[in-house]
């Protein structure tokens, strides 16, 4: 029970963050109108038990490790931030490419094993039907519900991306030494969020914890010795490092990652024409119109030059 107290103490923040997650989903989740349309109950015919499977597995895992709820919520938000909610953060690196999950800014991100476990259960019930992107989105939705937040009716039908490049993370995320003005401007421009929205969302997805290496850099910019302790607790002291490069007074977020769809397939969820859809654990075989697909080999990321087939 002791492990659950910090998480349950964030119930109010998680509830408000749930609304903000819906705003993020509405802003960046649908790459192309002609490709995918998110609808309520997209798997009602092809896998009617999908959402029940996700909730059952999340309930069991959060009961054992309550901190996994915040970890999955954070994982989902990081996936959405780069190229949309298309599961690219789940892809593994290859010898020729470092994927998003291995980017320096994503060091310490957890929850991958949760998505893998849920996807395995979904594939056992409905082989190859539910996308990795929807698996992660539904797990994040249920993480809020399981920590005393509201239940959110969530549309589904997301298609998986096959581009995952570590450099995209730094390009489309706030810099480690970004000040509060930079961060507020970023979320205002990209997602139309207010300063209060940013504070609530940041607290909820981080569970009140920040990476020491990033916090040390930010605190080091305050002044000599300033911010070397966290909350006045010497046991949590961080050795601050001063910024080595000057920063501009304003920062404008870059354009989104490019999108160049290749071959298409019929989406079993919507019937729309969509790019190839690799699964969490491998790459799909050639396009097929069947909604039941054989289990593929382990899924890996594309090279940096490969196009991202889905972006907002």
From TrEMBL:
<dbReference type="GO" id="GO:0020037">
    <property type="term" value="F:heme binding"/>
</dbReference>
<feature type="binding site">
    <location>
        <position position="82"/>
    </location>
    <ligand>
        <name>Ca(2+)</name>
    </ligand>
</feature>
<keyword id="KW-0106">Calcium</keyword>
<dbReference type="GO" id="GO:0046872">
    <property type="term" value="F:metal ion binding"/>
</dbReference>
<feature type="binding site">
    <location>
        <position position="84"/>
    </location>
    <ligand>
        <name>Ca(2+)</name>
    </ligand>
</feature>
<dbReference type="GO" id="GO:0006979">
    <property type="term" value="P:response to oxidative stress"/>
</dbReference>
<feature type="disulfide bond">
    <location>
        <begin position="47"/>
        <end position="126"/>
    </location>
</feature>
<protein>
    <recommendedName>
        <fullName>Peroxidase</fullName>
        <ecNumber>1.11.1.7</ecNumber>
    </recommendedName>
</protein>
<feature type="compositionally biased region" description="Low complexity">
    <location>
        <begin position="288"/>
        <end position="305"/>
    </location>
</feature>
<keyword id="KW-0349">Heme</keyword>
<keyword id="KW-0376">Hydrogen peroxide</keyword>
<feature type="binding site">
    <location>
        <position position="174"/>
    </location>
    <ligand>
        <name>substrate</name>
    </ligand>
</feature>
<dbReference type="InterPro" id="IPR002016">
    <property type="entry name" value="Haem_peroxidase"/>
</dbReference>
<comment type="function">
    <text>Removal of H(2)O(2), oxidation of toxic reductants, biosynthesis and degradation of lignin, suberization, auxin catabolism, response to environmental stresses such as wounding, pathogen attack and oxidative stress. These functions might be dependent on each isozyme/isoform in each plant tissue.</text>
</comment>
<feature type="compositionally biased region" description="Low complexity">
    <location>
        <begin position="261"/>
        <end position="270"/>
    </location>
</feature>
<feature type="site" description="Transition state stabilizer">
    <location>
        <position position="74"/>
    </location>
</feature>
<feature type="binding site">
    <location>
        <position position="88"/>
    </location>
    <ligand>
        <name>Ca(2+)</name>
    </ligand>
</feature>
<dbReference type="Pfam" id="PF00141">
    <property type="entry name" value="peroxidase"/>
</dbReference>
<dbReference type="GO" id="GO:0042744">
    <property type="term" value="P:hydrogen peroxide catabolic process"/>
</dbReference>
<keyword id="KW-0479">Metal-binding</keyword>
<keyword id="KW-0732">Signal</keyword>
<dbReference type="InterPro" id="IPR010255">
    <property type="entry name" value="Haem_peroxidase_sf"/>
</dbReference>
<dbReference type="InterPro" id="IPR000823">
    <property type="entry name" value="Peroxidase_pln"/>
</dbReference>
<feature type="compositionally biased region" description="Low complexity">
    <location>
        <begin position="241"/>
        <end position="251"/>
    </location>
</feature>
<keyword id="KW-0964">Secreted</keyword>
<keyword id="KW-0408">Iron</keyword>
<feature type="domain" description="Plant heme peroxidase family profile">
    <location>
        <begin position="37"/>
        <end position="253"/>
    </location>
</feature>
<feature type="binding site">
    <location>
        <position position="100"/>
    </location>
    <ligand>
        <name>Ca(2+)</name>
    </ligand>
</feature>
<feature type="binding site">
    <location>
        <position position="79"/>
    </location>
    <ligand>
        <name>Ca(2+)</name>
    </ligand>
</feature>
<feature type="region of interest" description="Disordered">
    <location>
        <begin position="220"/>
        <end position="312"/>
    </location>
</feature>
<feature type="disulfide bond">
    <location>
        <begin position="80"/>
        <end position="85"/>
    </location>
</feature>
<dbReference type="GO" id="GO:0140825">
    <property type="term" value="F:lactoperoxidase activity"/>
</dbReference>
<comment type="similarity">
    <text>Belongs to the peroxidase family. Classical plant (class III) peroxidase subfamily.</text>
</comment>
<feature type="signal peptide">
    <location>
        <begin position="1"/>
        <end position="35"/>
    </location>
</feature>
<keyword id="KW-0560">Oxidoreductase</keyword>
<keyword id="KW-0575">Peroxidase</keyword>
<keyword id="KW-1015">Disulfide bond</keyword>
<dbReference type="GO" id="GO:0005576">
    <property type="term" value="C:extracellular region"/>
</dbReference>
């Amino acid at each position: 029970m002791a492990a659950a107290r910090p998480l349950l103490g964030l119930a109010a923040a998680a509830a408000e963050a749930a609304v903000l997650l819906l705003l993020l989903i509405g802003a960046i989740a649908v790459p192309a109108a002609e490709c995918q349309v998110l609808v309520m109950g997209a798997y009602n015919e092809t896998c009617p038990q999908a959402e029940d499977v996700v909730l059952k597995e999340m309930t069991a895992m959060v009961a054992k490790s309550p901190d996994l709820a915040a970890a999955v919520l954070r994982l989902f938000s990081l996936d959405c931030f780069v190229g949309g909610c298309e599961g690219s953060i789940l892809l593994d690196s290859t010898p020729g490419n470092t994927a998003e999950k291995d980017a320096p800014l994503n060091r310490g991100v957890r929850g991958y094993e949760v998505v893998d476990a849920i996807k395995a259960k979904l594939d056992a019930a409905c082989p190859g039907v539910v996308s990795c992107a929807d698996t992660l989105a539904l797990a994040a939705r249920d993480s809020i519900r399981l920590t005393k937040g509201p239940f959110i009716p969530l549309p589904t039908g997301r298609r998986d991306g096959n581009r995952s490049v570590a450099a995209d993370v730094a390009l489309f995320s706030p810099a480690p030494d970004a000040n509060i003005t930079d961060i507020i401007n970023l979320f205002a421009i990209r997602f139309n969020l207010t300063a209060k929205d940013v504070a609530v969302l940041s607290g909820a997805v981080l569970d009140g914890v920040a990476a020491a290496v990033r916090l040390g850099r930010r605190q080091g910019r305050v002044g000599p010795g300033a911010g070397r302790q966290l909350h006045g607790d010497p046991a949590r002291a961080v050795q601050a490092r001063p910024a080595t490069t000057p920063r501009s007074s304003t920062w404008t977020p870059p354009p989104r990652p490019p999108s160049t769809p290749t071959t298409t397939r019929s989406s079993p969820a919507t019937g729309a024409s969509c790019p190839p859809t690799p699964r969490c654990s491998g790459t799909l075989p050639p396009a097929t119109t069947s909604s039941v697909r054989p289990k593929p080999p382990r899924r890996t990321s594309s090279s940096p030059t490969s196009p991202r087939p889905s972006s907002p």
